[in-house]
Amino acid sequence: MSSILSDILFVIAYHVVRYRRGVTSANLAKAYPQLSAERRKEIERAYYHHICDLLMEGIYNLYARPQSIMKRYRFVNREVVNRYYESGQSVVLMSAHYNNWEYMITSLNYQVMHHGVGVGKPLQDKSVASYITRRRGRYGTEIVDQHNVRQTMDYYHQHKVPVAYMMLSDQSPNDVHKSFWTMFMNQETPFLYGAEYFARKYNMPVLYYEVTKVQRGRYEVRFTPLCERPDEVPQYTITSRYIAMLKQTINKKPEYWLWSHRRWKRTRPADMELKPLTVE
Predict the structure, then answer these.
(1) What does DSSP assign to residue 257?
(2) What crossing angle do the helices spanning 149-158 and 194-202 adopt, rounded to 10°?
(3) What's the rounded Cα separation, in Å, for the pair 48 and 36?
(4) Predicted confidence (pLDDT) per residue in 48-68, tens digit
């Protein structure tokens, strides 16, 4: 039934309302100038089918039981994360708005041995935000506003609680001066630096996780270590590695990234250096 509703929603969003089609088309043209207009249009249509699926999955996620979510969102190699719990270490899990991220938020606390914490920007509508936060956290995942993450990390670090911090680092930073600027998808792009900052502060291992859409409504999550000891690598190494892996993920199946988001709305200030990606 949800697939049928998603297909109906696609017709409305893509053909009738034309939801952010100008933004999506412009983003794809900037990111993939080497592709033909026909190929970019194929990606665009597939993308709108996907976000309609995500909307239906998001509604389902608000009420689904843990066993149902785990059937749809499978951790392929959770042992890569759990081994840090066994050694008493907190970890940073870096990813992006790629494929389904709502299942990750809701299920994190019971998919891994760590206490799960999802870090993100608060929704503007406070009443809606309060409801969604309660539903996301109903199985134990703690939802933390990015402005309060420092206090949360301090608390768990002092009390020696192993925590898995989920951080989606592809959002547009509010402060362009407190960002990591680099070339990404053929554009000068600012990235949030918070994940690396806190990983270095507390010397937490950092892992990248890629979400693969196996079939409609079903996903697999695979974890890859980005950095075991942040205190032993140069600054920006973690962020560079993350961006490089994210680009690989997007290029494999570009229709699953959030193209209708105005990712390149910021302009690099003249005093901000455009840094190369150093992934060694």
Answers:
(1) B
(2) 20
(3) 19
(4) 999 999 999 999 999 999 999
